[in-house]
Amino acid sequence: MSSIFTKIVEGEIPSYKIAEDERFYAFLDINPLAKGHTLVIPKQEVDYLFDLDDNLLADMSVFSKKVARAIEKVIPCSRIGVAVLGLEVPHAHIHLIPINSEADISFSRPKLKLSREEFMDIAARIRQELNQ
Ligand code: 5GP
After folding, report:
1. Please, what is the average pLDDT of the chain?
2. What percentage of the chain carries pLDDT values higher than 70?
3. Pair 83, 107: CB distance under 8 Å
4. Rounded-to-10 torsion of CA 82, 58, 38, 22
């Protein structure tokens, strides 16, 4: 059975898309730690990030870098924090999270509740940065 993230890539489950190319897909995390919290995934369904082929893993970092640059233009923050957990969804992904302090990237914190309109607005603004 396909992972929930493969279903997102295939459009079976909706997502607030940020960016896509032949091999990678980026979309807003539905339970964000911060506005702009984004997940980057390979389209290939591999559970563990460090099982990815060397080239795919390297290129995923470069793809994530482009996305991170766009997020930080839209969401005021000190840095884009990067995290890999994979404890919930068995499809490799990198979390990109706008942060101002260490506490901002604590996954034990309560998640933000954003409206559909807020998600759509954030995603549209980040996409616009990417398209410039
Ligand atoms: P992890 O596997 O890294 O521990 O956590 C999975 C992450 O994926 C969580 O931050 C969770 O909010 C996010 N997530 C789980 N299911 C969905 C989904 O259906 N859509 C989106 N956009 N994010 C999801």
Report:
1. 97
2. 100
3. yes
4. 180
Structure tokens at 117: 């309109």
Residues lining ligand 1, CB < 6 A?
A: 4, 13, 15, 27-31, 39, 85-89
Question: What CATH code is carried by the domain that includes residue 118?
Answer: 3.30.428.10
CA distance linking residue 99 with residue 108, whole number of Å: 15
Structural domain that includes position 44? 4-123
Note whether residue 130 is domain-resident: no
Please identify, by atom number, the ligand 1 atom nearest to the C-alpha of residue 83.
3
Distance from residue 132's CA to the centre of ligand 1 (Å): 28
Output the pLDDT for position 29.
Answer: 98
The whole model's pTM is what? 0.98
Query: Is the pLDDT at 132 greater than 90, yes or no?
Result: no
